[in-house]
Design brief:
With about 475 residues, the chain is an alpha/beta fold. It has 15 helices and 24 strands. Strand 20, helix 14 and strand 21 form a beta-alpha-beta unit. The structure holds ligand TXE.
Length: about 475
């Protein structure tokens, strides 16, 4: 199935007629072509967004909100179709796309449709000076949104929804590896009555299409989720043009387990936080640290549970681990098993690719647990972004905190304990944008979302996202 760019409400081929293959990770086959758009396509998308801006930025909040709620409803109404497309494009289990990815895309629109009606700005009375200051929160204009392949529609809409709620018009690029649900969103926007040009979806490689977005002199803000190296590259280009940047990048998140935790709950959640979505979530807890007194017990129980996870075709309802997103990514993740061994790591389970009958060319890998001799080895420091976790014991709070923080990343952290004082001490000192205690990936869309250190700059979520997509302007009136 071929897909097209969505510009000014119309579906069109790339101007250069340059196309790239779209692969199905579950069987390794090419099943369609996607545009590899260039500067000219981005210019067209920009012009379309620019023309729409006057109307959209002056559209009442009630009307914006009404259209966005309609988009949300239509995503829900198309749940099956979108989930199937997502699973086919990405390799994730179909049940997961149905239960999480697509409902969350719908929630993103619903949430920001409502949030914009509650978004208020400040005023300050300058006492004794007979003056009042008030702050306008104005839309930026045309903004760029670039998203990755791991949670395709979920993260695409996480950016687009606040951008348009705040009155901006958007030039957006989904990952070239998973373009399908973003393509389908175009039809939904038309059906919901989103005015032409408010959202433009342009497909293609990062180095051509993405690059053209970040280099465009009049696209004044970029919201990006993806790899840390790409994020650094974007920052270098955007900085001399003084673009506003929100970068949500990689993670190497610690999962810290104390002996006083609720063991069963911790175990079930740790299996999930390690291998959900084939471990391809920036929030996965890929470094597991376990208090020494329960380490051996944990190791036995965890490995048994992980061995029982079924690696299978994404369409099968009992599949727990589907296909990885691409051949290149599978090769990268697999290479870390060898790196771990060279560094003295012991593969406790997994470590191999998997061949599934009927889908022999799919990109499958066993969920893998590696016991590491030190927290400083490469598998414990570098983002693998696949079904591979490391485990090691610790003795003291100080020791584990030091290891947890001793990486270049700082996205999220998980802590398992029932000791309130310890919870407070550790949460305060963890270098992370998000800390979960006795849970994982429990999300409330009002909360700030993002990381510190090499995990990025800025925060998404709630009013943080609406602040990012608006420019504050202070007006001071003397009376
Ligand atoms: O991501 P890229 P990749 C991490 C993960 C993974 C690594 C590389 O460790 O192994 O990053 O993945 C677009 N200008 N994460 O290479 O390239 C690209 O087209 C503008 C973590 O697939 O960063 C896609 O739309 N855009 C992460 C988007 O950037 C460019 C999720 C992300 O792709 C561009 C994904 C350029 N020059 C990977 N180059 C997370 N934080 O969740 C690429 N892109």
């Amino acid at each position: 199935m071929d897909i097209k760019n969505y510009i000014n409400g119309n579906f069109q081929n790339p101007i250069s007629n340059n196309w790239i293959d779209n692969y199905n990770p579950s069987n390794g086959e090419v099943y369609g072509q996607i545009p590899n758009s260039n500067k000219e396509d981005i210019e067209q998308a920009y012009q379309s967004a620019k023309s729409a801006f006057k109307l959209w930025s002056n559209t009442t909040l009630e009307e914006r909100s009404r259209i966005m709620l309609k988009i949300s409803e239509l995503i829900e109404a198309n749940l099956d179709k979108l989930a199937e497309a997502e699973s086919k494009d990405n390799g994730k289990p179909l049940w997961l796309a149905k239960a999480v990815d697509i409902p969350r895309a719908s929630s993103n629109f619903r949430f920001f449709a409502n949030a914009i009606t509650q978004f208020a700005s400040e005023s300050h009375e300058s006492i004794g000076q007979n003056a009042i200051n008030y702050t306008l929160r104005q839309p930026i204009g045309v903004v760029g949104c670039i998203s990755p392949w791991n949670l395709p529609l979920y993260l695409f809409t996480w950016k687009i929804a606040p951008a348009i709620a705040a009155g901006n018009c958007v030039v957006a690029k989904p990952s070239e590896v998973t373009p399908m649900t973003a393509y389908l969103l175009g039809d939904i926007c038309n059906e919901a009555g989103l005015p032409k040009g408010v959202l433009n979806i342009v497909h293609g490689l990062g180095t051509s299409t993405g690059q053209a977005i970040i280099e465009h002199p009049n696209i004044k803000a970029i919201s990006f989720t993806g790899g840390t190296t790409t994020g650094a590259h974007i920052a270098k280009i955007a900085a001399p043009m003084f673009k506003k940047l929100s970068l949500e990048l990689g993670g190497k998140n610690p999962n810290i387990i104390f002996a006083d935790c609720d063991y069963e709950d911790m175990m079930a959640t740790t299996v999930r936080s390690s291998f959900a979505n084939q471990g391809q979530i920036c929030l996965c807890g890929s470094r597991i640290f376990v208090e020494a007194s329960i380490y051996e017990q944990f190791k036995t129980d965890f490995v048994n549970k992980v061995k029982a996870l079924k690696v299978g075709h994404p369409s099968e309802s009992d599949t727990k681990v589907g296909a990885l997103v691409s051949k290149a990514h599978l090769d990268k993740v697999m290479s870390y098993v060898e790196i771990a061994k060279e560094d003295g790591g012991i593969v406790l389970c997994g470590g191999n690719s998997v061949t599934i009958e009927g889908y022999e060319n799919g990109y499958y890998m066993q969920p893998t647990v590696i016991e590491v001799p030190t927290d400083e080895c490469r598998v414990n420091q570098e983002e693998i972004f696949g079904p591979v976790v490391t485990i090691m014991p610790f003795n003291t709070e100080k020791e584990v905190l030091n290891m947890a923080n001793k990486v270049v990343y700082g996205l999220s952290a998980t802590l398992w304990t029932n000791d309130l004082k310890r919870t407070m001490r550790i949460s305060n000192q963890l270098q992370a944008g998000i800390v979960w205690v006795n849970t994982w990936l429990m999300r409330d869309l009002r909360t700030p979302f993002g990381g510190v250190k090499n995990s990025g700059v800025g925060r998404e979520g709630g009013f943080e996202a609406l602040r990012f997509f608006t420019e504050p302007k202070n007006v001071c009136i003397k009376y």
